[in-house]
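== Fold encoding ==
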Amino acid sequence: MAKYLVLAAVLFGTVACGDTWGQRAVTGGGIGAGSGALIGALTPIGILPGALVGGAVGAGVGAATTPKR
């Protein structure tokens, strides 16, 4: 289980990929949904709820970040 938590942390760490606010929100949502689905598949939560929560969190974090220049 610990290796999946590390994987999720790495995926969430790469959330803010993109130059514009919209790009970061979309890529963050995609990465978050994928990692949330993975975590949901390994827990009693389920794949769909995990993907929904992960996508929402990822999009929020991606939109809230600024590009590194």
